[in-house]
Design goal:
This protein has 291 residues and is α+β, with helices and mostly antiparallel strands. The chain has helices at residues 2-25, 111-122, 124-127, 276-280; strands spanning 50-54, 73-74, 81-82, 148-153, 156-161, 167-171, 186-192, 195-201, 221-230, 233-241, 250-258. Helices cover 15% and strands 23% of the residues. The strands form 2 sheets. A 9-stranded mixed β-barrel has the order 1-4-5-6-7-8-9-10-11. It has a two-stranded antiparallel sheet with strand order 2-3. Strand 10 (233-241) and strand 11 form a beta hairpin. The chain is globular, with a radius of gyration of 23 Å.
Length: 291
Amino acid sequence: MEKSVKGLMIAIVAAAGGAFAGAWATPMAGQAPAAYRAPRTADGKPDLNGIWQANNEANYDIEMHMARPALALRPGPYGPVAAAPVLALGAVGSVPPGVGIVEGGAIPYKPEALAKRKENLDKWLDRDPEVKCYLPGVPRANYMPQPFQILQSPSAVFFAYQYAGAVRNIYLKDPGPAPVDSWMGQSVGRWEGETFVIEASGFNDSTWFDRSGNFHSDQMKVVERWTRTGADVLSYEATITDPETFTRPWKISMPLYRRLEKNAQLMDFKCVEFVEELLYGAYRKKPLSRE
């Protein structure tokens, strides 16, 4: 009996090993064969039109991270626990684990900038621009947990984001330096074969990369690469350069997926009105209780 059970287990393991070997030999879901050729627009360029969305945990933290009880924490008797302002959220306010999107694992902060990142996370509730519905900036807009739409024609490329109604008009002819720093910066695009390359600059220093305090200065420049790698998949890469904050350029990468619902569309998420009570409620003649 013992030998037969042992033999059965060996057979199961062998079969599973063959299945895993087959899985590794097959392209992973979302990846496309090297021979894939994207559909074309009227001018013969790869067609990036569609509603797209990230499927990852990068908006919590672009670096690899484990699950934790909340973003806002305080010391507990056996380890960190949720801070008092978010305690009532329970599991809803927790942070799911994520493998990260930073190539090489860690962001190459300068020592003083790393200390500021930690301070940002400690004061997340007060500092994260997402809490106050400020525009998300680049590249964060592309992996917020809401969809965005690319509208492409031979003469124009436009990005519309559901979150906060953010938009980007991608210049196809360089207009020169941005006249003023802004939340979404200025974007100039060009085609390199199958890849649409966007050089973005002219940012203010007020956006974050995620909810974990990862930040940049107003010297940041971002080079994005958008490549259609499957019928419903966009490969996204962004190289970040900011000599004031980082010791060297660094890169993030991820797939973005097309929304396939028959009625897929961007809806309204103009969240400014959702934070009026947070920002201005205390100034009412008769303020509401915050408890």
